[in-house]
Amino acid sequence: MSNDNKMLSNKAYDKYKRNPEARAFYRSAAWQKVRLIILQRDNYLCQECFKKDRLTIANIVHHIEPLLDNWDKGLEEDNLESICESCHNKEHPEKGSRKKEVKQSKVRIHKPKTNRAIV
Ligand SMILES: [Zn+2]
Ligand SMILES: [Zn+2]
What we know:
- Belongs to the HNH nuclease family.
- The chain is mainly alpha-helical and 119 residues long.
- Helix content is 42%, strand content 7%.
- The chain is globular, with a radius of gyration of 17 Å.
């Protein structure tokens, strides 16, 4: 258990953490099975690294279309790819980068702060 979970006020992250269906999904035998199929299909190599000519062991099977957006594709092989942890963090910037670059890269200012004149 890490304490910093609470500090992530992040919707996408919490969405999975709190979603009992998602948790059940990841624990299901069906998922475990498909997961292995995908890893074997991809030779246990990270497909994102592979595109960049790097060979990295994949330890995560990633949903290209997010599970919560598309349950139908949850077990669809075309929607799954093997990926390494660091690439996975890039695929999910909302939950990934809390270790290092959280502070800088996560702060996105949507409100234009220099536009006071408009008011
Ligand atoms: Zn990778
Ligand atoms: Zn993912």
